[in-house]
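Hi everyone, sorry if this is the wrong subforum. Our group has a chain we'd like a structural model of before ordering constructs, and none of us has done structure prediction before. Sequence below.
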Amino acid sequence: SSAALAADWKVTTWNLEWFPAGAPDVRDAQVEAKRTKEAAEVLRALDPDIVLLQEVRDEAAVEALAKEIGRGHQVVVVSRFRYGDELSQHQQAILAKFPARAAFW
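Answer:
Right subforum, don't worry. Here is the predicted structure as tokens:
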């Protein structure tokens, strides 16, 4: 919208380091839920319009974080970088409070 273009945007970038598990081999649901909640608390306090994330596992993890933030953040794009024949656990993502016209990786 023209209002979004005219406003100052607050942008935050964060390397979440093996998000949401915290390590390449940890997949415990309670650990992941706790890390998601903690990251969401920080992002709510910062209240950015755009969030650039590094080292996220996949789109599902980013969707869970956006939902936990609860301030209208939408997942704009999540990369699908490969490591050999498999998807890497180090993806990048963008969240925004307003819709994007286009996004790709």
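For your construct planning: The mean pLDDT is 91. Helices lie at 2-6, 29-46, 59-69.
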